[in-house]
Amino acid sequence: MEQAAILDAAGWTGPNGDVWAQEWRRTDRSFAALSAELDRTIAHVMGEGPVAVADIGCGAGGTALAAADANRHAQVTGIDISAALIAVARERAGANANIRFIAAPVEQAIGAAGPFDLIVSRHGVMFFADPVDAFTRLRAGTRPGGRLVFSCFRAPADNVWARETMAAVGEAPPAADGYAPGPFAFADADFVRGLLAQAGWVQVEARPVDFLYRAGSGEDPVADAVGFFSRIGPAARALKMADPAERPAIVAAVRALCAARLSDGHVDFPAAAWIWSARIPA
């Protein structure tokens, strides 16, 4: 495992996962417009009959819960490496009988938890140390003819929320060459298509989806957005790394950026994702 991947996994089992667990309401809100489209796609693929579904990198459980609600005959399993996020997901699920959550690395858990008819994910697939191996394991945990549906970000240049926050805090966009786990690791459609083919998936298709990334709302949407970006994303990284004396200037730059995006009581940024679908041979 590469050092970057080791650090990334450690972050999700520690501080990163903890922050996302604390911020699940605002992260779900930021993805709400995309989630609506992804959930419709998943519901269409599931159909109405019995089906075993795995939500990989399930986070706080939003996509898994939507799938379980859409088809009461489905048995949905959410898997995430973060115990803190899984605790939130379990609390949200309550006594729902057709959903369960597992705190474990997806690559390790998928075989024992399956087999599945459908693998889904909302932005949970871009953090594998070895993505070809991971998607090969996902295929092995899927029944013949099984399906795959997941979303991921397109390039930073197409995601104004990322491009502008990176510029505001002086962060360079991630390198386009080579694979490194991270939010934009699957931005290159040719790369993703190739790795899925290597992993044995067929009928691979990508659909671009543009959506509004909602960063702030409520009584003071700008303050809400600044608070959100101070916890998650490029501004949060910059604040963590900066000297204390530099932090007020970073916060001021983010506040100006968010104020410029305030409209109709919300702070929204254009965002861009892929929704991928594939299957394995019957």
From TrEMBL:
The keyword Membrane does not apply. It comes from Sphingobium rhizovicinum. Its EC number is 2.1.1.-. One of its GO terms (biological process) is methylation. It is an enzyme of class 2 (transferase). Gene3D superfamilies: Vaccinia Virus protein VP39. Keywords: Methyltransferase, Transferase. InterPro entries: Methyltransf_25, SAM-dependent_MTases_sf. This is Class I SAM-dependent methyltransferase. One of its GO terms (molecular function) is methyltransferase activity. Residues 53-146 form the Methyltransferase domain.
